[in-house]
Design a protein that fits this description.
A two-stranded antiparallel ribbon has the order 1-2. It is rod-shaped. The chain has one domain (about 25-85). Helix 1 packs antiparallel against helix 2 (about 60-85). The chain has helices spanning about 15-45, 60-85; strands at about 1-5, 10. The chain has 2 helices and 2 strands. It is mainly alpha-helical. The two termini are about 25 Å apart. InterPro entries: SCO4848-like (IPR058061).
Length: about 90
């Protein structure tokens, strides 16, 4: 506990601590998504089920591509949320 100018105890604001944890978790989420999902795409795109005999993308590839795009959108929103939390808007 800190003390004020008159030696009375001042509580550490709980919001400041919680905000730091939120920022850390949001950034950790963003880093995880940006590192993991592009590698997953490389594996999915080279899978034999990704393309049919004429070379067109199959439902297998399209569904996984939607999942990857959504994960990367969540990563971008996580970074935005972390920034907004840091500047005090959130």
């Amino acid at each position: 506990m800190r003390t004020g100018g008159d030696a009375t105890p001042m509580a550490v604001p709980r919001l400041a601590y919680t905000g730091g944890m939120v920022v850390a978790l949001l950034l950790l989420n963003a880093v995880f998504n940006v590192v993991v999902w592009p590698q997953f795409y490389r594996r999915i795109s080279s899978d034999p089920r990704a393309r049919d005999s004429s070379g067109k993308a199959t439902a297998f590839l399209r569904v996984h591509l939607v999942l990857i795009v959504m994960a990367l959108v969540i990563a971008a929103l996580s970074v935005l949320g972390a920034i907004l939390t840091l500047i005090g808007v959130w």
